[in-house]
Write a structure and sequence with these properties.
The structure holds two protein chains of two kinds.
Chain A: E1 7-8, E2 13-18, E3 21-26, H1 28-34, E4 37-41, E5 48-49, E6 54-60, E7 64-68, E8 73-78, H2 88-91, E9 100-104, H3 116-122
Antiparallel strand pairs in A: 1-2, 2-3, 3-9, 4-6, 5-8, 6-7, 8-9
Chain B: H1 12-17, E1 21-25, E2 28-33, H2 37-46, E3 48-52, E4 57-62, H3 66-73, E5 86-92, E6 98-108, E7 111-116, H4 121-130, E8 136-139, E9 144-150, H5 154-159, E10 174-180, E11 183-189, E12 198-204, H6 208-219, E13 224-226, H7 229-238, H8 273-282, E14 287-293, E15 304-307, E16 310-321, E17 326-333, E18 343-348, E19 351-358
Parallel strand pairs in B: 3-13
Antiparallel strand pairs in B: 1-2, 3-9, 4-7, 4-8, 5-6, 6-7, 9-12, 10-11, 11-12, 14-17, 14-19, 15-16, 15-18, 16-17, 18-19
Helix pairs in contact in B: 2-7
Classes of the chains: A alpha+beta, B alpha+beta.
Chain lengths: 127, 367
């Protein structure tokens, strides 16, 4: 449920390094908590994002949640498929439910994020 | 700081067992969802859903002055009710502001039952008692558990558990003193808050789990599932039923809300009549309108409604409608703008999203 190769933010985003770029989504914990995602407001490709500042919005039936950037940089890809199938954020948060890919200014910034074990403790599922 | 313990219904252990997510609502710890809002919402529209609404209040008025007291308290006309008939009504302050919206059933010549909102039960009971003459008002809320069985399969499911004549039970009518799932002393009304056919079943507080289990067991094969307050809210909003505290309250009148049909100005004196009569003659300054989004956006409670760069009102209720599959909402706006088709904007994160005023309800079941 919380892959070891990802880094996790305190706002429940995950970050995955892929050839120097960072793929970003929200964790299973966040997806379950929001439930029934019906709309994802994505940034434009090229938009600048700042570490732990909101860059997008997820709307579920009941609630609005900001999505925070787990790393500073520039948005190079957005998951446009979420326009038609926002529910994949719930069903496949680490796969089809990815949100953006960021070209990071400094990959070292990811060191400020949590490991899977640390994150599990934050959400109360740690040992 | 005093910590007030949340109240629980007699079905609390059932909610936990069903894996419900529990939230505070009006002082009660209630299930907001079990399987998920969208799934539960669809189950009610296509099959059936079972709701624990035991947190709602029941007040009985009995005595020679019962009818006169009821007539004084409510805006609708209870004189036309025969035994076993009910109505939906507002109960107003002298200012015309709404104390609560409720259903009133006539159980007998001199006996009436009010079913009121959970969060307003204590306030309502105090108000009702204060204005009851030559009759006794009793708060029977702790005695009754209340289940809502809603959806097209509801009549088939309930008929397996009672000998009461459900096919003869018309909309907004009640059967009192019936047996359901072996539980005696129940009442069944053909009412609800979802826009579907269905029933509300009152039973002795401690017997509610027995009725709940029996309903889920017999209704399971029909697609009956437990439904939480989350889907209850999306269902009622699609059906354009008012939520007290959001769409109506003590600062709004039934004529501003789409509840004019519950105000019977010619039935005789009642609390709030003078103000409502004047408001009717002079016209209201705002009306509660329904609107739907013309783009992918979801209106939420408190968002500004705009037209020509000016704020014209606020969203009182808004959601994504799981059945109508679009953003829908309610809000008070100037009467000039309530005509269906009028273009308005909803201010969402600093940008006006396009919406259009529509005729209510957003959803109406096919007959």
């Amino acid at each position: 449920m919380y892959p070891k190769d990802l880094r996790y933010s305190s706002e429940h985003e995950w970050a995955k390094v892929e050839q120097g770029r960072v793929r970003v989504g929200v964790t299973k914990f966040a997806a379950d908590k929001m439930s029934d995602v019906v709309f994802v407001e994505l940034p434009q490709v090229g938009a600048a994002v700042t570490f732990m500042q909101p860059f997008g919005v997820i709307e579920s039936v009941k609630a609005v949640s900001d999505i925070y950037a787990p790393v500073s940089g520039k948005v190079v890809e957005v998951n446009t498929a979420l326009g038609d199938t926002p529910e994949v954020v719930n069903s496949d948060p680490y796969g089809k439910g990815w949100i953006v890919v960021i070209e990071p200014q400094d990959l070292e910034e990811l060191e400020k994020l949590m490991t899977a074990d640390q994150y599990l403790k934050v959400i109360g599922e740690g040992k | 700081m005093a910590v007030e313990r949340l109240k629980r219904t007699s079905l609390y252990s059932r909610h936990v067992r069903h894996g419900a997510r529990l939230v505070e609502f009006g002082g009660w710890e209630m299930p907001v969802q079990y399987a998920g809002i969208v799934e539960e919402h669809r189950a009610v529209r296509t099959a059936a859903g079972l709701f624990d609404v035991s947190h709602m209040g029941e007040v009985e008025i009995e005595g020679p002055g019962a009818l006169d007291s009821v007539q004084r308290l409510i805006t609708n006309d209870a004189a036309r009710l025969g035994a076993g008939a009910g109505l939906y009504t507002a109960m107003c302050l002298p200012t015309g502001g709404i104390v609560d919206d409720l259903t009133v059933f006539r159980l007998g010549e001199q006996r009436f039952l009010f079913v009121v909102n959970a969060s307003t039960t204590d306030k309502d009971f105090a108000w009702i008692r204060e204005h009851t003459r030559h009759a006794v008002a009793r708060n029977r809320s702790p005695e009754f558990g209340l289940l809502a069985l809603q959806g097209p399969k509801a009549p088939a499911i309930l008929s397996r558990l009672t000998r009461a004549d459900l096919s003869g039970l018309r909309y907004f009518h009640i059967l009192d003193g019936v047996e359901v799932a072996g539980v005696r002393g129940c009442f069944i009304s053909r009412t609800g808050y979802t826009g579907e056919d269905g029933f509300e079943v009152g039973c002795p507080w401690d017997a509610a789990p027995r009725a709940w289990d029996a309903l889920l067991e017999t209704g399971g094969p029909d697609g009956l599932v437990p439904v939480g307050l989350g889907a209850r809210d999306t269902l009622r909003l699609e059906a354009a039923y008012m939520l007290y505290g959001n769409d109506i309250d003590e600062t709004t009148t039934p004529l501003e809300a789409p509840l004019s049909w519950t105000v019977k100005l010619d039935k005789g004196e009642f609390i709030g009549r003078d103000v409502l009569l004047r408001q009717k003659q002079e016209g209201v300054r705002r009306k509660l309108a329904g609107f739907e989004m013309l783009e992918r956006a979801i209106p939420r409670h408190g968002y500004a409604l705009v037209a020509n760069a000016a704020t014209i009102g606020r969203v009182t209720s808004g959601t994504f409608g799981p059945w109508v599959e679009k953003g829908i909402g309610l809000g008070y706006i100037p009467p000039e703008q309530v005509r269906p088709g009028t273009a308005i904007g909803v201010e969402i994160r600093g940008r006006p999203a396009r919406a259009a005023v529509v005729k209510l309800p957003f959803y109406k079941r096919s007959a």
